[in-house]
Amino acid sequence: MQVNNNGVISFLVSVSQFTPDPFPLDDGRRLLTPFWADIDTTNGGTLSYRQVLRFAQNDAIFLEADDIIRASFVDMRDFVSSWMYITTWDSVAFFGASDTSIRNSFQAVMVTDGRYSFAIFNYGDINWTTGAASGGDSGTGLGGTPAQVGFNAGDGVIFYSAPGSRTAAVVDIETTSNIGVPGRWVFRTDNSNIEGLECTTSGV
């Protein structure tokens, strides 16, 4: 697994590409894409990631994740996670920004009990969609080819593209959800059953 600066978590291979391709991709790239776009942390913001194993001293964050999974999937009412990987893009700017005060904050949380696995995408303030090298406006971070949100199994068949991906509407991803909680998207990732995909919106 590799955390890429461009808003992508990839498996087997790294992803340096900053302009997102439309899903599905059939080139073997297995991707989680909370916000695939041309992020430039040298212009501001931070990328951090950590693996967490369940112990008594950090039980609270696992309890929170368990509650999210149980509420999102009716057949997971007994889910108890044991491992978590948290990746956070905090107040990140876009490549080519002439106004580096325009920032995005978002997070991907991978969680598993050893049998079932899920990805939780959390969105804070989203203000830009596109880096300048992807055709975006250097003053606004809008236009061009906007960010892709979702996941891709790499086989050209199993994928999910959140509504608004690669359109101007992705700037409002923090107001939408597939579980009824604005700014949060949850996916089951351990098998081919793509679940919990009803799209709900709030505040738009």
UniProtKB/TrEMBL annotation:
Q: Which organism is it from?
A: Strongylocentrotus purpuratus (Purple sea urchin)
Q: Which SMART domains match?
A: NIDO (SM00539)
Extract one GO BP annotation from the record: cell-matrix adhesion
Q: Where is the NIDO domain?
A: 34-192
Supply the name of the protein: NIDO domain-containing protein
